[in-house]
Design brief:
The protein is mainly β. The chain has one helix and 13 strands, in the order αβββββββββββββ.
């Protein structure tokens, strides 16, 4: 509860500060997209027989986005995003993941819902109605909940079981710090701009301690986002 309260306070302070100092150069909008995430295994760990094979999965994200214009070609971009991250795991034999027994040949999809607060620096280039931009900055995330879905393929994919994941019981690290960088295009329209960008997110926090291995794992992800910013 302390971690959740601290994060909500940081979210509020970030947005209040941006709006208070933005004056007429502030834009507010919405975005949605898809991200592709996976676990980053330590070198050599994926070659061990007792460790499942992890692969990336796609999940949606959506949220609010602001832009505080500090100079003609530079801005600060705070965001508040709801996103789902995860991965899939499979092994030739039976294995256990997050306390759930997974039969041989069955794929286990692990998905975690996050509330994230990116605070990005944004450098723009180009003139006219179309501009390019680069973004980079820190992201603070908080894992709200999770679920594990076991799936088998017999001509078509069939969900065998969906199990809620108790994050406290498995000692999952709810708070996640990461760094994101990306590039995109914006098009001036109406009283604002439409935008499309791609990003890479590098997880710094060790979110989970894999059983049998004294090593924690980190999340990595790619995302594609689109949205609209209204200029006040």
């Amino acid at each position: 509860m302390k971690a959740k309260g601290w994060m909500l306070t940081l979210v509020a302070l970030t947005w209040i500060s941006a709006i208070a100092f933005a004056q007429s150069s502030f834009s507010l909008g919405v975005k949605s997209g898809v991200n592709r995430t996976n676990l980053k295994l330590p070198d050599g760990l994926s070659d061990l027989n007792q460790v499942p094979q992890f692969s990336a999965i796609n999940n949606p994200s959506f949220g609010l986005i602001g832009e505080w214009q500090l100079a003609p070609f530079f801005a600060i971009q705070p965001e508040l995003t709801f996103t789902t991250k995860g991965f899939k795991a499979q092994q030739d034999g039976e294995f256990q993941l997050f306390g759930v027994d997974v039969p041989a040949g069955v794929v286990a999809y692990s998905e975690f819902n996050y509330l994230e607060l990116p605070l990005l620096a944004k450098a723009k280039f180009g003139k006219g109605i179309v501009q390019g931009y680069l973004t980079a900055g820190p992201v603070l995330g908080y894992a709200l909940d999770g679920k594990l879905t076991t799936r088998a393929t017999v001509l078509v994919a069939l969900d065998l079981m969906k199990t809620p994941i108790n994050l406290e019981n498995i000692n999952y690290e709810r708070l996640e710090a990461s760094i994101v960088s990306g590039a995109g295009l914006s098009v001036q329209a109406l009283h604002g701009q439409f935008f499309l960008d791609g990003r890479y997110q590098y997880g710094l926090s060790e979110v989970y301690d894999l059983p049998l291995i004294s090593d924690k794992l980190q999340l990595r992800g790619l995302s594609l986002n689109a949205g609209y910013l209204y200029q006040f």
